[in-house]
Structure formats: structure tokens, C-alpha cells
Amino acid sequence: MAKAIQLYSLATPNGQKVSVALEELGLAYEAHTIDIRKGDQFSDEFKKINPNSKIPAIVDPDGPGGKPLAVFESGAILLYLSEKAGGKLLPSDPTQKWEALSWLFWQIGGVGPMFGQFGHFHKYAPEKIEYGINRYKTEVKRLLAVLEKQLEGRDYIIGSEYTLADVATFPWVRCLDTGYNAADVVELDSFKNVKDWVARCEARPASKAGLNVTPFPK
To answer: Does the pTM of the predicted model rise above 0.85?
Structure first.
């Protein structure tokens, strides 16, 4: 029996990416909550897993050669898990695979940083800085428009197949509403294809389960 992957995370969009992937891939895992509000990520124990003190991170006790392996950065974790599961959540067709990977890194390089900065200035900053709010709101809406166009006539980002690109992106889009309470601010309802796609992703039983792993402690 395979040894369970150890997941160290919190239910932020970046954390949810990995728990959603683990559920969709059917890999055995044990989840450990890292409460970033309390500074758990700066503990000496956690920094042995991720020296950059960020969630999520995993330890696979049965890594390459049967040796334990720590992996951090959500994109790297997603690729590792897909490979461990025999390439699931990536198309077998090479052209479609690279299309999915392009959109995966679009999320990592664009959606994550821009949506995160928007959320900070909109909801969490101790003072309202209009320049910051407007700068990142504009970029969020631009990225939503890119996604809206890509989803035209498609169930998922690259077509009919649910891939790592969807896994990585939909938690960030839903966070605009569920986390940042900013659906009206970014006019989320005007992006119909995006809204329908998020609902489609959330309706998948494994993805729905993955969203609720390592919830924020009350």
C-alpha cells in the first residue's frame, strides 16, 4: 500500500489547488493545517519542508527511488502529483498538453499574483489606497476577459477535458466572491462563461471535496 503524501496547507486559493488535485487524482494523503495567520509557516519544522515559508507544501514519503521528497510551490506540486498519478489531469495529446501547461503557467504568473494583490488592497490593507485598488482591479478584469474569451464554446479551459489549468485557476476566480467579497467590484456577473465554468468545476465531487481541506481554524 502506498504511503500517504503529507500535505501542509490552508484553504487559500493556492492551497486549494493542491488539495483539489489530490482529490481528483485519487492519491492517498494526510492533511496538516498551517495557520498562516498565526505564523505557523515560520516555524523551524515547516521551514525544513519549505525554506520560503509559504503554503502549500508536500512531503512524499515514497518519492523518487523510494526516498522522502519535499516539494513546494503550488505549480511544482501540481506537476509532481500529476506525474506520480501517471500523467492524469494533463492531456495525452502533446499539443493539448502544452496548451494546458501554457494556461497553468498563465495562472501562476498572472492570475495568482494579480488577484492576490487586488485582494490585499481591496480587503486587507490597513488603509485604502485607491491607486493600488484600481491598478489591480483593472488587471483582474483584464485577466477575466482573457479567460472569458478562452472559455467560449468550451466546458473547460482547453476544451472538454478538465486539466491542471482548471484546477489551478478556478479557486482564484471563486475567491473574488467567497474570499474577497468583490464580485460586484470586478463585475464578475458580466463574465458569463467564467461564472458557468466555475460552477462546473465546483460541481465535480472531488474538486468540491478538495476545496474544504485544511479550512481556516475558527
So the answer is: yes
